[in-house]
Write a structure and sequence with these properties.
By secondary structure, the protein is an alpha/beta fold. It is about 50% helix and about 15% strand. The chain contains 30 helices and 21 strands. Strands 8-21-20-19-9-16-18-17 form an 8-stranded mixed beta sheet, sandwiched between helices. β11 and β12 form a beta hairpin. α24 (about 680-705) runs antiparallel to α25. It starts with 10 loop residues before the first helix and ends in an 11-residue tail after the last helix. About 45% of the residues are buried.
Length: about 800
């Protein structure tokens, strides 16, 4: 077929087929267009209240007011659709990033691409832990075993041979293989039965559940209050339609419809912002958990180090012979950087041996056998067994006298001091026709060592120092030699005063002893995958909030068990990605620190937005019914509440979302994850803030009315006071620590656009006669306008003083 070859598909041919056949994705019913979003908006309570208000105005014969509310309905729908589409686009981008990765051969070179970019005819390279991205037919296999339970329901994995099909969505649980893609997207077996793959987690977060509970309480309270107001209005003034209109106005003023909007926008855009820093958020609850992380468990290779292995020494034997044997003990198509470094150092002679000899038996690396062992047969029948691996594993299988053993241990100690990865290399023969099932039966002879260097990433020491300043303990868990692990930990800046704990030592500890050891030790070496789960469990039992990085199939249980599982995006398997809440797209430790910073920022901004929303509804709702209770003329009508909503909605969903974190956000201890967002203190301060603005507005309105100001001018004054109070609350609640004047030095363009736009709209509604007539306003003198601004600002004065005198959150001491 045109474009296909053993070297893979050509890039131009792949692009042509993608354009003709579409991306390798299934139709997603969750993606909503603008019309479907608009249809959902039309069922929202705020829309129904506006429609009811317009209908009552028509029944009252006030066509102009009805048309105004009808126009406001169109504006509300437009703004809401724009907000929802912004969130949808962010989520769609995250879904695209979260699709399985695929390793293909294009133009003769290995290339890792998104699963959606796989084209018919592509040559897939499959390895243990990969999710098959498309239907394909196997070209070559090496002990390939695939779990097809997703399609067939059969629990047992299936062994695959050359020429057999593999199907999209199935999981490689063992071995390797290459396959040519035969069908993509909806044309796959997976697509034909209508399933959906790699969905983002749709579960409700703790914060979303807490917010929904608050919204229900406020909605019930508001409904009761509205009914009481209607009854009171009818009893005192005898007008049913006007009473219902007053009740609708109060319902619009008290309805907490922005709460779910804030969460939707903040979580979606927060995940999008984190993705720009190279961190994919697969599960939304992880955003609110990030700021509470207290322990960060990381792997060494590729996370703290550059994962750029290079052979720097071959002690204890002939360089050529040792590297040749190490190459023979490496995978045929190696992905591991260490094996690639060995093959590069071994040169063409070792490559010729690997091409000319037949690999007849492969003994894989396991948690019980920390080595790779390959049995080869030459064209003339010679049998040769090559092994490389952890020095202690290889040495235990070699017959060494005391002097040789001492010399080997000296090499291990020297490599550990230098922070090098040391592999022992051994060789054996085998005369029998049948290869043994257990590699321990071979009579191995030690041939030497291969020392490899993997330098610590330049940015890691500073990033770890930031974690320590933020109260986050960094723990290294590695399968490497203990001495090497300690040397790398010191270079990275991880505290090593507690020494190192090995997997064999952990195996001897019961749960309480392991919990005690985990409190003091920050470096764990020669750890088996199942022991990672033990460590995560120990930290969680001690009350820690645990984040953990991983990349392999065996890491999946620990990643799932951690509060925040973090998978490696480049070298990680699809199984690890699917078990994780976060995926590091660039396998960069600095990205984790950036994600923690953003997680703290997002949570704090949500808290500030919620504080503002609780506070801002109180003066609006209060001025919807207090004038009626006091026997004053009706103060607020639906059109006034709509005006205020046009300030509140962008303020909470744009201004607060764009707010940058405080300078000291990474010098604060992690927050307690058990602390509710809507704590008694937070609710109390928010209610007091809103009530103080309500009191000042109410007193100001009473004073100007009592002083003889005309009804339209008095309403203008009261409304302007609410608007100024609203703006003051936006500026005051931006930060729990900074004053309005201190916070103004922090750039936030959206804040000033909203502030300026609100003031322009207020001026138009007061001073432009056609607009003022719609609002029932009279023009204010500059003095009264200034007084209204003073009244609104006075309502937040105590909160500014409270920030100054309340106990501050103490910065953590710098790391020692």
């Amino acid at each position: 077929m045109s474009g296909e070859a053993p070297h893979g598909l050509r890039s131009d041919e792949a692009a042509r087929r993608l354009a003709a056949e579409g991306p390798n994705v299934l139709p997603d019913a969750r993606r909503r267009g603008s019309l479907s979003i608009a249809a959902e908006v039309l069922r929202e309570p705020m829309f129904l209240l506006l429609a009811a208000g317009a209908l009552i105005y028509l029944l009252l014969g006030n066509v102009r007011e009805a048309l105004i509310l009808a126009a406001s309905i169109l504006v509300v729908v437009t703004i809401t659709v724009a907000q929802e589409r912004k969130s949808e686009r962010a989520l769609e981008a995250l879904r695209d990033l979260s699709s399985p990765r695929a390793l293909v051969v294009r133009d003769g070179a290995l290339l890792r691409i998104a699963g959606a970019e796989v084209a018919r005819g592509d040559l897939l390279v499959l390895s243990e832990g990969d999710r098959v991205p498309a239907d394909a037919r196997l070209d070559t296999t090496n002990d390939l075993v695939v779990d097809e339970s997703l399609l067939t329901g059969e629990s047992l994995p299936v062994e695959k041979q050359d020429g057999m099909p593999v199907y999209s969505g199935t999981l490689v649980v063992k071995g390797q293989g290459r396959a040519v893609v035969t069908a993509t997207g909806p044309r796959t077996e997976f697509g034909r039965i209508g399933l959906s793959l790699a969905e983002l987690d749709g579960e409700k977060s703790r914060l979303q559940r807490e917010t929904a509970r608050i919204v229900r309480w406020v909605a019930v309270f508001g409904a009761v209050l509205c009914l009481l107001l209607v009854a009171f209005y009818v009893a005192t003034r005898g007008d049913w339609l006007a009473g219902i209109l007053a009740g609708i106005t109060l319902a619009m003023a008290i309805l907490p419809e922005e709460f779910p909007v804030v969460l939707t926008v903040f979580l979606a855009l927060g995940a999008w912002r984190i993705a720009r820093d190279g961190v994919l958020m697969r599960r939304m609850p992880a955003i609110e958990t990030l700021g509470a992380a207290t322990v960060l468990c990381v792997d060494k290779t590729g996370t703290l180090t550059e994962n750029r292995m290079a052979v720097v020494d071959v002690p204890g034997g002939s360089r050529e012979e040792v590297l040749e044997l190490a190459a023979l003990a490496s995978e045929i198509d190696p992905f591991d950087p260490m094996e690639r470094a060995i093959l590069a150092a071994a040169g063409e002679r070792a490559g010729a041996l690997r091409d000319g000899w037949m690999l007849e038996r492969d003994y894989p690396f396991t948690s019980d056998f920390l080595a790779m062992c390959h049995a080869w047969r030459s064209p003339d029948g010679e049998r040769r067994v090559a092994m490389k691996g952890a020095a202690e594993t290889v040495l235990a299988l070699c017959r060494l006298d005391a002097a040789a053993r001492d010399a080997a241990h000296a090499e291990m100690a020297l490599a550990a001091e230098r922070g090098l990865r040391l592999l022992a290399v051994a060789e054996a023969g085998w005369p029998d026709a049948e290869w043994p099932a257990d590699p321990r039966r071979y009579d191995f002879r030690l041939r030497g060592f291969v020392a490899l260097a993997d330098p610590v990433r330049a940015e890691v020491p500073d990033a770890i120092a930031q974690c320590r300043r933020a109260g986050i303990r960094v723990v290294m868990i590695t399968g490497d030699f203990p001495g090497t692990a300690l040397a790398v930990a010191r270079a990275a800046g991880i505290a090593t005063e507690g020494g190192v704990l090995t997997g064999s030592e952990i195996a001897k500890l019961d749960a309480p002893a392991l919990a005690r050891a985990a409190k003091r030790v920050n470096v764990f070496a020669r750890i088996r995958p199942e022991q990672k789960l033990q460590l995560i469990t120990a930290y969680k039992a001690d009350g820690e909030v645990v984040a953990m990085t991983g990349d392999g199939v065996n890491d999946a249980p620990a990643l799932k068990a951690a509060h925040i599982g973090v998978a490696m995006g480049q070298r990680g398997t699809d199984v690890a990605r699917e078990a994780s809440a976060l995926v590091l797209l660039h396998d960069d430790f600095q990205s984790i620190v950036a994600a923690v910073r953003l997680g703290r920022r997002i949570y704090e901004n949500i808290r500030n937005a919620m504080r503002y929303l609780i506070a801002v509804h109180i003066p609006i709702a209060g001025m919807s019914f207090l004038p009626l209770v006091f026997g004053w003329p009706v103060f607020l009508y639906p059109v006034h509440v709509v005006f205020l909503e046009f300030v509140i909605d962008p303020a909470c969903s744009i201004v607060f979302e764009a707010e940058r974190s405080d300078e000291g956000v990474m010098r604060q201890p992690p927050r307690d994850p058990r602390e509710p967002m809507f704590s008694a203190r937070m609710l109390g301060v928010s209610f007091l803030l809103g009530a103080s603005v309500l009191v000042m507005v109410c007193l100001g309105y009473w004073w100007v009315a009592a002083s003889g100001l005309a009804g339209g001018e008095a309403r203008s004054f009261g409304f302007a006071s609410i608007v100024f109070g609203n703006l003051a609350m936006i500026h005051a609640t931006r930060s729990r620590d900074h004053s309005i004047f201190g916070g103004s030095r922090r750039p936030n363009a959206a804040l000033w656009w909203i502030t300026g736009g609100t003031l322009v709209a207020l001026a138009a509604s007061v001073y432009l006669p056609p607009v003022a007539d719609l609002f029932r306003f009279g023009a204010l003198s500059p003095g009264y306008l200034a007084l209204a601004a003073l009244v609104g600002a006075a309502g937040v004065a105590w909160y500014e003083a409270y920030k100054v005198f309340r106990p501050r959150r103490q910065d953590l001491p710098p790391p020692g």
